[in-house]
Every structure is written in C-alpha cells, then in structure tokens.
Amino acid sequence: MRKILPLDLLKKNIISLKRQGKKIVFTNGCFDILHYGHVKYLEDASHKGDCLVVAINSDVSVRRIKGNHRPIVKEMDRARVLAGLKSVDYVVIFKQETPLEVIEYIKPDILVKGADWGLKDIVGREAVLKYGGKVSVIRFLKGYSTTKLINKIAQTFQRQRYR
C-alpha cells in the first residue's frame, strides 16, 4: 500500500509536503484492535493539519509494552487497517518502545496524543517544541479501550463455552 512507508521514504514525502506549505500531524500507538475510539481520535487528529502520519508499534515493541499476549493483530495487518482510513495519510512501523526517534527524524509540525496522556508525559513533546512545532491533546472518548474490548470478547466466549 502506498500509505505504509519505511521511515526514509516517509521522510522524503514529508519534506516535499512541507515545501508545499503543508502542516504535518503526527500521532502514534499500538492500534491493536481498531475501534470507534481510535477512528474518532484519528479523524480529530487529521483536522489539526494537512497530512496525518500514524506511527504504530511493531509486534516486538507491543509485546515489550503490553506483555506476551499482545498484540492480537499483527503489525502489517494493523498498518493496513489504519491505511484504509480516509483520515490517515501515512503509516510507519517503529520497533522502539517509544516513537521519539521517528519524531526527531521526520520533525512533524504538530504532535498529537489523547488526553489520557499528561502533557509532560507525551513522548517527543520537548523535541517538537524545541524546533518550533506544537503539541496538541485530543479529548479521550470514555468507554473505548482495546483492553476492555478484549476482555469483553473473552468473557463472552468464556460464558458460551459452558452453555
């Protein structure tokens, strides 16, 4: 897919877009099982600029953060689902625990995270502010969580087993 790019090619595209005066928005996450909270968040993030880049944790990175039981969905499948969204312009996969290296490399104009993150806890905030970028927080939709969704699915199928 043309939206899923390696970091070096993504950087070239971003340089070209910036020359055209486009504002680059960046966000990141695991996006393991995509749900409405994710979709709404990405739509809101995309309205902050002209081009939305979504960096997703690789499978190895997700396991380090969430444990060996995650991710449920493999990295390329997660990337493909995100790339299928109208609000998402580019997807890049990173192996580190945080996207700091990606942020420092592509230098987005606007770094976006959900309001469940404290402003001081947003990875890359200092780097983005240092080169003149902005950091934006988007209201977190209550009731939407991948972990809650996984637990609900597990409980539903556990109950069905014993019927």
Brief description of this entry?
With about 160 residues, the protein is an alpha/beta fold. Helices cover about 45% and strands about 15% of the residues.
Apparent shape: globular
> How can the largest sheet be summarized?
5 strands, parallel
Instruction: Report the CATH architecture.
Output: 3-Layer(aba) Sandwich
- Work out the oligomeric state of the chains in this entry: single chain
Tell me the distance between the termini: 43 Å
Order of helices and strands: HEHEHHEHEHEH
DSSP E strands, number: 5
Mean pLDDT: 92
Query: What value does the Rg take, in angstroms?
Result: 16 Å
CATH topology name: Rossmann fold
The spatial strand order of the largest sheet comes to 3-2-1-4-5
Low-confidence stretches: none
Name the CATH homologous superfamily: HUPs
Class based on secondary structure composition and strand pairing? alpha/beta
User: What is the strand content?
Assistant: 15-25%
CATH class: Alpha Beta
Describe what you observe in this structure:
With 163 residues, the protein is of the alpha/beta class. It has one domain: Rossmann fold, CATH 3.40.50. Helices cover 43% and strands 17% of the residues. The protein contains 7 helices and 5 strands; from the N terminus they run H-E-H-E-H-H-E-H-E-H-E-H. A 5-stranded parallel sheet has the order 3-2-1-4-5. Helix 6 links the parallel strand 4 and strand 5. The longest helix is centred in the C-terminal third of the chain and has 16 residues. It starts with 6 loop residues before the first helix and ends with a helix. The model has no long low-confidence stretch (mean pLDDT 92).
